[in-house]
Amino acid sequence: MFYPTVKDETVLMLNVIVQSIEKDPNYxxxxxxxxxxxxxxxxxxxxxxxxxxxxxxxxxxxxxxTQIFKIINxxxxxxxxxxxxxVTEKLAYFKTKTLLFEKLISMRERAFTLKELNEFRSxxxxxxxxxxxxxxxxxxxxxxDGAVT
Length: 149
Fold this sequence. Notes:
- By secondary structure, the protein is mainly alpha-helical.
- It has two domains: about 1-50, no CATH class; about 50-149.
- Helix content is about 70%, strand content about 0%.
- The protein has five helices and no strands.
- Helix 3 packs antiparallel against helix 4.
């Protein structure tokens, strides 16, 4: 195996760039950025967010919608970063983009349907708790459970 020489100073400078990108996602796209497209592409691919629990929030439907929106934005940014010199890569990107849009829109519709269903269920349960006694709620749930299964 070949291990190129890397000095500590080089690593420190690279770390400064990585930290700058993490603080400002537009760091590499700024007009003031002096780096070549090769360097920008390297850092764009190399810097990725650490995995997080995206469902730590209570509203999972909102989290799903936000993630779908983020994927669409990332896809757009990737498409804009593609150079015009590689037509094959551009064609593959547009084909992939179309397929992903269809799936993402379908997922978004399902997320909103799920949200509406949860809101309806909450409204019904709230109404039942206000109007019915605990025994009546239990009886209704027992009957509904039998009807659903």
